[in-house]
Amino acid sequence: MSARIRHYLLATTLVGMIGVGAPAFAQTAPAQPQDNAADAPSENSDIVVTGTLIRDPNVVSSTPVQIVGKDEIRLRQANTAEEVLRTLPGAVPNVGSAVNNGGAGSFYVDLRGLGNFRNVVLLDGNRIAPADLQGRVDLNNIPLALIERVDTLTGGASTTYGADAITGVVNFVTRNDFKGVEAASSYQITGRGDGGYFRGDLTLGANFAEDKGNAVLSFGYQKSDPVYQGARDFSAVNINSYTGAPGGSGTSLPSSFSVGALGTLQIQPTTGALVSPYQPFNYNPYNVFQTPFERYNVYAATHYDVTDSIEAYGRAMYSKNIVQTIVAPSGVFAADVSIPLSNPYLPAAARATFCANNDFNPAVAGIQTLTPAQCAAGAAATSPTDPNYRTFSTQLRIRTTDVGPRIDRYETQVFDFRGGLRGNLTKSLKWDVSGSYGQSENYHAQQNYVSLTRVRDALLATNTTSCLSGASGCVPLNIFGGPGAISEQQAAYLRVPATSRITTSLAQARGQINGDVGVAAPWAERPISFAVGVEYRRYKATQEADALAQNPSELGGGGGAITPFTGAYRVIEGFGEMIAPIVQNRPFFEDLTLEAGIRQSQYKITAAGSPTYSTTSWKVGAGWSPVKAIKFRGVYQTAVRAPNIAELFQPNSTGLGSLAADPCSGIKPVGNAALTAVCLAQGAPAFTIGIIRDPSSAQPNTTTGGNLALKPEKATTYTLGVVLQPPMVPGLSVTVDYYNIKVRDAITTPTAQDAINSCFTGLSAASATSLACTQIRRNPGTGSLDGDAGTTPGLYLGLSNLGRLETDGIDLGVNYRRRIGVATLALSFQGNWTNHQKFQATPTSVNRECVGFYSANCGYTGSIQPEYSWNQRTTVSVGAADLSLQWRHISSVRQEPLDVVANGPAFGSFGRIPAYDYFDLSTRFRVKPHFELTFSVSNLFDRQPPLVGGSIGTVLFGSGNTYPSTYDALGRRFAFGGRLTF
What we know:
Blueprint: H1 3-14, E1 27-28, E2 65-69, H2 70-76, H3 81-86, E3 120-123, E4 126-127, E5 147-154, H4 158-161, E6 168-174, E7 180-190, E8 197-208, E9 213-224, E10 227-228, E11 256-258, E12 264-267, E13 274-275, E14 288-290, E15 293-305, E16 310-329, E17 331-340, H5 348-357, H6 372-380, E18 391-399, E19 405-424, E20 429-450, H7 452-459, H8 488-494, E21 495-516, E22 529-545, H9 547-550, E23 565-586, E24 589-605, E25 612-627, E26 630-641, H10 645-649, E27 653-656, H11 673-681, E28 701-704, E29 713-724, E30 732-748, H12 752-760, H13 771-774, E31 795-796, E32 800-820, E33 823-840, E34 848-849, E35 853-854, E36 868-878, E37 881-890, E38 893-895, H14 897-903, E39 912-913, E40 916-925, E41 931-938, E42 973-981
Parallel strand pairs: 3-6, 28-31, 35-38
Antiparallel strand pairs: 1-2, 2-5, 3-4, 5-6, 7-8, 7-42, 8-9, 9-15, 10-14, 11-12, 11-18, 12-13, 15-16, 16-19, 17-18, 19-20, 20-21, 21-22, 22-23, 23-24, 24-25, 25-26, 26-29, 27-28, 29-30, 30-32, 32-33, 33-34, 33-36, 36-37, 37-40, 38-39, 40-41, 41-42
């Protein structure tokens, strides 16, 4: 869709649209359907109560649920579900639009910071097709236009929803029985005139068959433009977090070469000399703060009363998402190449250095050099048949900026269908049988990646017009110049497209009976309610890749091989839940209700020799209201998470991790016999001792893969809380809940620093033969931990059930609403205090505390977890207008103390981020009942993000010298939205 058409649609929709609606604020409360005259639930519709499978409008679960209503979503003018959840207190920002390098086109949620694969995302209480090998749901696929509310339940929920719900669930509840037409559009732009984001939705709904049925159909389109880090002063130049000097990548331009014992030297294009130290490559300007995104989605739902007691229902959704991640140019990343001394682009000064310091006879140990006469003869020998023809080998590092930036285009198509029948067995018993199938296909096209095979071919040349191989299309390559040295003809030969595809599917079937037993406890008025049933799920995933994507050494900067495989598992479960009122309407017992649940699961891994295992999860809870104004609640649960397909089946592959300092780098091993022995045992050549470099861009190679011996991890969680609604303050409600989550036998990999510590802490003579040390494999040419993925496995980070995770804290919710003269005042507050967030990968790893800290290791499962965070909204409504101000707070954080020990203190102020406060202003107007206009300003005071440099965080969440998923890197943003209903 062209910009002209988008702007025309926006203008058409906005003309005359002025309106207002009562906002529904984020809160902590039992999740109950909200009344809406336009789309009220029908008598036979399913009542969705997040946290229990019991479908009873009178049921209130003992588990706290945070609610974000549709009007809050509209006030924020959120475009994707990830934007709604990113700022939720207690959640940790995860992969979203601000993640560029390392994202795979999908957006996720991370509750409590324990990993985005330890929570479940539901649509109307049901799972939908996952987007990747880890079984995660892409939040891009949620149809926001039809969302009535978003319920977030934190803490174990495996008893209710099955495995994976260790940290909780996010349930998107759609509007039921929609009737009419709703057209909405919005456009956002930053205060600097970039980052345009258009969204448009059209929803149609109507009753049919004399109101026995209802159908709804919704269409949506979105498109966002990139915001480059080079467009912001604070991120235009990469800064080293520990020195404050310009940082960046050792794979640079001009090129760098390994030159025997001289180490790695950089070419000077003006003189042709090889010099040290190298100038790092500033990759920031190529990266983006807002990932370009385009989405088409269709959602349809219907239900029909077949008889007075049987209802048929179904829904279907389709979404096509196109995401482009844009990163710095490709090139050659420490790969071995051979170059003739007669290469036409090789400067004389560089040739002389190579001749005097390079190995021209690999069969003979040591550095074999050439005399000046031999060197001159080699320079004149242009044919391989000439006895004087010679080549030298070197590890080349070059950024091929003339080829263009690397672009990874992820095109995802997902469809998901669900259908079922439900009805009444008796007046108090209901049954529900349903099945669903969903499939997601993520097609990945890699563009502007340099082929190492073609680079090697193009370097074996003795003239500027043809290659010695005689390969068609081969153009000799100039790697000895600066920007512009590689011509378009040379660049065109280097570019190779590579593709891969991930296809995932989820088939489900469920049958359940729920209702009440018709019997109440002696002192209760309501009967005991229950739900029992069985459930079946089958997950399957396939990863495919072409030959180029499968080769770990072929694509420059490709991040490792994409290895084809297929994996699947299935689970059969039986479950039961009960909610039993014990005492009601008695002195000091306005209400006392107990609840319990159990789920038994049987897993079968579809691989030869794989075990079948079973798990049991259960919960007990209670709610006690001594008087109407006070309710105490608590629930204790056990939860499980089965290993996902990636954790089970993914073949070992080498990618990139995060590590700033290598114990073998520089002069550290010089004079230290034990350390030198370890560095050599890991594959470092003897001549590199004293000149090994730290990982380029603080990204060492890491190798990991699946493990079919993994078992489900187990968790215990509990919440204790109170709900206050004092009658002396009408309109006020307060909730306070303590949560505690502990995961044992956690499926984890060590961090890169854990792998280093396991080897290098307490070195002795025996360390050089220990597995912890020898499983680290170094670059065979330079001794470093980075380089060609085909020859340098780097740090081995194996999956196991040896991990431990835990977190605890307090959630506070306050809501107040009252009439003041001609105005209505609405106040809401949702805050979180996180006491602990600990992670220990193995019994010998560090038990790492990450609340209030940041480092590459504390970004293992997500971004920054502050100690305190809150959202506070104040809305004043006067007649046809709303004026609403949201205050978002993030408490101060600092460099992780263990990172200080490992890498030294961060430079200057980079070691601490002060508390951050953001304010968002929204205004809505309505002149006629069906016309609404919303104007909002996010980051009202244009607060710039904190600067911590480019090497103290993980690649995913630390970018552009800041943490753009946690802090606003775009600056002040304006949004205009209109809504027409009839």
